[in-house]
Amino acid sequence: MSHTELDRNSPTQYPLSMRLMHWGMAALIIALLIVGLSMVASLQTWQPTLLTWHKAFGVLAAILVIARLINRVRHQQPQLPSSLPKWQQLAARGSHVLLYTLMILMPVSGYLMQSAAGRSVYLFADIWLPPALAPNLTLYAVFRELHAYSALVLVGVISVHALAALHHGFVRRDGVLKSMLFK
Amino acid sequence: MSQRRSFSAMNYALIGLALVGLLLIWLTLLGVFGRQHVSAQTFVDFQQGDEPHLGFRRAHAKGVCVAGEFVSSGALADYSTAELLQQGVTPMLGRFSIGGGNPTAPDLTSPVRSFAFSLDAGANQQWRSAMNTPPVMAVATPDAFFAQLNALAPNPHTGERDGEKIAAFFAAHPETQAFRQWSASYQPSASFAQENFHSINAFYLVNADGKQQAVRWHLKANTEAMPGIEQPSSVADNPYAQSEQANDALGLEIADRIRERPVVFDLVFTFADPSDDASDPTVAWPSSRRHVIAGQIVIERVVDSPSVCDAVNFDPLILPTGMRPSEDAILRARSAAYAESYRRRAREQIFHHSDTTP
C-alpha cells in the first residue's frame, strides 16, 4: 500500500470540533500554567484572585478534556505521513498519550490536594466542589507534589509538542501542522 | 500541493500567540517576573535557616493543639452573611503557639505568642485565623518585612543582634512606631489564657445588601468563665517557670487549665471608621472605635494527636461567605508563605523521618 493511497483515505485535517478544542484548551492550559507557577511565589495582592480562578478554570479544563476525549474517539483523524521516520511516529504518539495523561492528572491532583487540605473548590455563583477526602497531611503531600511535578513535565511536553509542530510546518512542510490549523 | 502554500495571517497569529504563551510560561518558571521582590520561598528559606526542622511549621513550630467551639451571639448578623456569625455554635480546632521555627524552643522567652483557629461551618464555609500578641505589624509591605527580619536576626556566628542595624532599620521605617510602642509596653503573662491575640490585618464584613465594613478582631479572656483571669501576671507566675519542665511552661500550663475547665475568650471585633486605612497593618485604630463581641471561643479539650493540627494550614485568607480580605499586602504574603511552609512540611512527612513531638 503506497502512502498516497493512505493519504487519500484519511482526512488531511482534524475535524473543526477537534481543532477548536485543541486551540481553546491550549489557551486555557497555558494560562493555568502561567498563573499556577506565578501564584505559588509572587506576593502581589491580586494573586489570591488568580488562585480562585486557577481552581475554577482547572475544573473547566477537567470537563473539557473529558469532552475532548469523547469527541476524539468519535472522529477519524489525519494520519502521520508515512515518510516520517518510525521513531518520530512513535514519539508523536507517545507525546500525545502523555499530554492527555497530564491533562487528566493536573486537575485530578489539584482537586485532591485541595481536598486533603480540607478545602472546597469554588466554581462560580454559589457553587462549590466539596472535598473528596478527609484532611490528611500525607495525602496532601502526595497530591501537592504530583500537581507540581506534573506541571513541570507538562511544560516540557508542550514545549516539545510546539517545536515538533513548527518542525512539521516550516521544515518538513508535510501538512501535519496544517491539519490542526484553519483556512 | 496545498501544504506548499504559506499559512494565512490568522494561522500565523495563532501560532505566534501559542509561542508567546509558551515563552511566558518559561519566563515565569525561571522567575524572571518580580525578581526585584521577595517571594513566598524567600521568606520560608529565611525562616528555616540553614538547618530546617523537618516536618515542622517554619514559623510557630511549637504549639499545643486544642478543640472546642465558637459560640456566636449573632451580634454581627447585620454586618455579615457568614453563617458562623449568626447566632449558633460552630466546631473549632485551635492551636496555641510561640513564635519561631524551633519546635523545642523555651516557651517563656518567646517574644510572640499566638492562637490560631479553624472554624468549620461546612467545607466551603470555613474561617481560619492566625492571631498574634502584637496588635499591629511593624511594616506594611513584604519587602519591608523581609528587611525587618534581616535587621532583627542575630548574627549566625555570635548569636548577638546587631543594635546598629536594628536602629538603622527603625530609622528608615517610621511606620514601625506603633509596633515599637506596643513592644516597649508589652509584659508577657504567665499563661496563654491571659494574652490578647490580634488579627493584626483588617478584613471586611459583608452583609446581605453587599455593604462592607472594615474590621479587625482580637481574642480577650472572658472574665465570667475564668474569674480572676484579668489579674496581671508575669512569666515568673507560671507554675512551671521554676520547674524542670520550664522549657514547655506555657504549653503545660494551658493544657492543665483546659483539663480543669474550659478556657474562654471573647471574640471582639473593632469597626474601622472611614478615616482608617484597612490596607495598612502598621497603624493601631483608636480605642474609641466601636467594639462588638461576636461571641466566645470556648476551648474544651487538648487534642493529643499532633496530626490533627498538623494537617491544617491556618491560612488567614480562608474566609467564609460574608467576610472578605482587605487589600493589605502583608495578608497575601502571610497566606503565600504559610502555603509554602505547609508544602514543605507535608513533603517532609514522606521523604524524611522527623520527630513528631512536641
Concise synopsis of the structure shown:
The complex is a heterodimer of chains A (183) and B (358). Chain A contains 5 helices and 2 strands; from the N terminus they run ααααββα. Chain A has helices at 3-9, 16-39, 47-74, 86-116, 137-172, and strands at residues 121-124, 127-129.
Describe this structure in words.
The complex is a heterodimer of chains A (183) and B (358). Chain A contains 5 helices and 2 strands; from the N terminus they run H-H-H-H-E-E-H. Chain A has 183 residues and is mainly alpha-helical. Chain A has one domain (9-180): Fumarate Reductase Cytochrome B subunit. Chain A has a two-stranded antiparallel ribbon with strand order 1-2. Chain B has 358 residues and is of the alpha+beta class. Mean pLDDT of chain B is 93; it is low at 354-358. Classes of the chains: A mainly alpha (183), B alpha+beta (358).
SSE topology sketch:
The complex is a heterodimer of chains A (about 180) and B (about 350).
Chain A: H1 3-9, H2 16-39, H3 47-74, H4 86-116, E1 121-124, E2 127-129, H5 137-172
Antiparallel strand pairs in A: 1-2
Helix pairs in contact in A: 2-3, 3-4, 4-5
Chain B: H1 9-29, H2 40-48, E1 63-72, E2 88-98, E3 113-120, E4 126-132, H3 142-152, H4 163-172, H5 177-185, E5 197-198, E6 203-206, E7 212-221, H6 249-260, E8 263-271, E9 291-302, H7 307-310, E10 323-325, H8 329-351
Helix pairs in contact in B: 2-8, 3-4
